[in-house]
Amino acid sequence: MPSVFEALRWASSFLKEQGRDENAGELYLRHLLNWSRARLFAEQKTVLEDSLWEEFRSGMDAHVSGIPIQHLIGSEEFYGRTFTVNRHVLIPRPETEELVYYSLERMKRLFNGSHTIQAADIGTGSGAIAISLALEYVGDVNVRAVDVSADALGVAKGNAERLEADVTFYHGDLLQPLVEEGVSLDVLLSNPPYIPLSDRETLSEVVVDHEPSLALFGGEDGYDLYRRFMEGLPRIMNERFLIGFEVGAGQGETVAEMLTQAFPRSSVEVVMDINGKDRMVFCEQA
User: Fold this and answer.
1) Which stretches in the chain have pLDDT values below 70?
2) E strand spans, 91-228
3) Is the separation of the CB atoms in 147 and 171 below 8 Å?
4) Among 35, 38, 115, 268, which one is least packed by beta carbons within 10 Å?
5) Short-list 77, 59, 56, CA closest to 67
6) What predicted TM-score, i.e. pTM, was given to this entire model?
7) pLDDT tens per residue across span 162-196
8) Which residues pair with 188 in a beta bridge?
């Protein structure tokens, strides 16, 4: 049977040949062994048991067939925490971590601990944004999270309970549950579906076949959800507010113009992600 080192070398070569991420083997083997990354590299000479080697190979075959490695593992890291994920929720991406980071910075500057912040994450999925906000904001904050998918909310609630995050969850469409409750917000964050339907054919089957379409596609041009937001946001945001959207690359200026029209007195900024793509749009009103 192969050693840890040999198994990782085989997986890297196999995945590269099949056009998959070469690092998936390391992630999956760490999961099977329940080892840290440091231990994995410290014990590379350890020989794998027959059953574990077979399970590892089967997992790599499954990943090559299109199943996301996060679904095989059952989790993904986000903002330093482990979130349960499955086919009902979008797998959290590093770009969304940037949305959380910049939002927290702006909240600190805009509100400066002046009062208990009323915040919401719309289209919460796994709960990654809402839970991170609740646990990371230095100050008092009431976080609400909305999703139209009951299955997604089940995942998000489980993550919040396990991570001990105080988040209130609502089942419903966009802002409607908050409007019905008469909530007014200081902060609204969202990573809505923004991929144009026309892009479906160009996406990897790992995404299209295994992540929920409800969380991916934003109509023919990708802007359907943003348009609906603009109709409801002016009725729910307080006088001083922060809105933060994640957008698809190339969509920043269009979404920024939508926000400027909806809030003529606000300051709107398109922010690039670490890869230099227009990935976030922030709207502030002091």
Assistant:
1) 194-222
2) 117-122, 141-147, 167-171, 185-190
3) yes
4) 38
5) 59
6) 0.88
7) 999 999 999 999 899 999 999 999 999 999 876 65
8) 120, 243
